Amino acid sequence: MGAMSLTELGSKLAGLMFIWGTIQQFFPYTLRKRIKSFWQKFENYFYPYVQITIDEFSNGKSNDIYTQVNSYLGTKSINKDAKYLKAEKSKNSKSFAVSLDEGEEIIDQFLGAKLSWRSHIETFNENSSGRNNSRPIEKKSYTITFNKRYKEMVIEKYLKHVMEEGKAIEFKNRKQKIYTNNCSEDWYWYGKGMWRDINFEHPATFDTLAMDPKKKEEIVSDLVAFSKGKDYYSKVGKAWKRGYLLYGPPGTGKSTMIAAIANFLNYDIYDLELTSVKDNSGLKKLLMETTSKSIIVIEDIDCSIDLTGKRKKKKKKNEETTNEDEEEDSESSKEKVSENKETGKLTLSGLLNFIDGIWSACGQERIIIFTTNHKDKLDPALIRRGRMDMHIEMSYCKYEAFKVLAKNYLDIETHPLFQQIQSLFEEVNISPCDVAENLMLKNASGGPEICLNNLIQALEKAKEKTNKDKEDEEKTSLNSKSIKKVSTKLVGRLKKLWK
């Protein structure tokens, strides 16, 4: 009975189409227009829906919208009541991706609209080669169906929302990379680019970072504000980037801090070796090949290349100059001319332009990090606010940082020996690296108490060395005072004899 009803309905619709064709031929334009308007209302009443198809490939190329929709619907399908799903994993992804299987449908809600997504896979054989055993080809697509009154909202807002969410999911699930610049620019011309990369799999996080909790919280808050600051940076007219200077003695965790920042933001790392850069032009090319959402690192910048020689000479000649700001940022035309004469060299001016010149805005959401053991050796113009926005001192290990390391290495939060260790930390300077080495279990039979005792011995040795250094310093000071007194008396006697 149902089948007969559908047949009758089909016959009636065919009849209406025939009538409409006849009307178009014999009726005047004004009447046809009114009848057409009536027909559209009639059609919308029975089927007031619009359907948009998104194919996997468009004009022979991969369709970015399809991949982002695929990622978006993968997360939605887990939360919805979809029953038929597929799981896939690519070599560039950290985890497997879930997507809708063929014919599966899920319902999404957006700004009051109800939207139906359905997956389609069409399989056919490619017979252009004339072979019967040709491999089948799959044509994948998604269709989205919604009420016609939401058409403008879907096209202008919803699809943009889906693409942004899908892109964020892809970024979160991708494998991080760490890049290093090639020593020879010949790689660039052979199509291999100026950077080489491997997967970045460092386990460091802010939870495992040995640092004062208050300082750690301050850094995390700054990173969160930066990652959410797209609109703010655009509003104030600044490039969306931020600079961090990590300074402190060796072994205080500067490299670990960089890894923790990268893992927190899920950014790639570009480890820039300045000694491999031939000139300012090469530095600019490297910058152009970096991506957004990345960290550009220059470690031990004070040891990389000599960028302060000209500044020191200039300061000696201008000792009477009182304007420190002009001296710090002395990027005058005379200095630029003198630097440009040295062709084939990387200059301080080139590095400053790399950090915050016009070319530094060729990518968004980037962090630049310098590390150094000797902050005082760096040119003031290199680390001023606006270039290195946040100066982070990586200091010696203190008791609070020790407790983090004890939790990481020994899985303990308290122990009777902690009180003795706390008192020793108040008197001794020791790096987190040295503390961690003493807390590591050297064999299977070792336990937390053995490691803590090893640390106590190391702290006591460091204390003895510190006390001895103080005694030697005091002796040296006393000797210098004695020599000064003797020399003063001797000079006085010589003056008397001279008279």
UniProtKB/TrEMBL annotation:
Keywords: ATP-binding, Hydrolase, Magnesium, Nucleotide-binding. One of its GO terms (molecular function) is ATP hydrolysis activity. It catalyses: ATP + H2O = ADP + phosphate + H(+). Residues 321-330 have a biased composition (Acidic residues). Residues 312-340 are annotated as: Disordered. InterPro entries: AAA+_ATPase, AAA_N_dom, At3g28540-like_C, ATPase_AAA_core, ATPase_AAA_CS, Mitochondrial_chaperone_BCS1, P-loop_NTPase. Signal peptide: none annotated. Gene3D superfamilies: 6.10.280.40, P-loop containing nucleotide triphosphate hydrolases. Residues 331-340 have a biased composition (Basic and acidic residues). Its cofactor is Mg(2+). CDD domains: RecA-like_BCS1. The keyword ATP-binding applies. GO terms for biological process: response to stress. Residues 240-398 form the AAA+ ATPase domain. Pfam families: AAA, AAA_assoc, AAA_lid_At3g28540. Belongs to the AAA ATPase family. BCS1 subfamily. This is AAA-ATPase At3g28510-like. It comes from Nicotiana tabacum (Common tobacco). The lineage of its organism: Eukaryota, Viridiplantae, Streptophyta, Embryophyta, Tracheophyta.
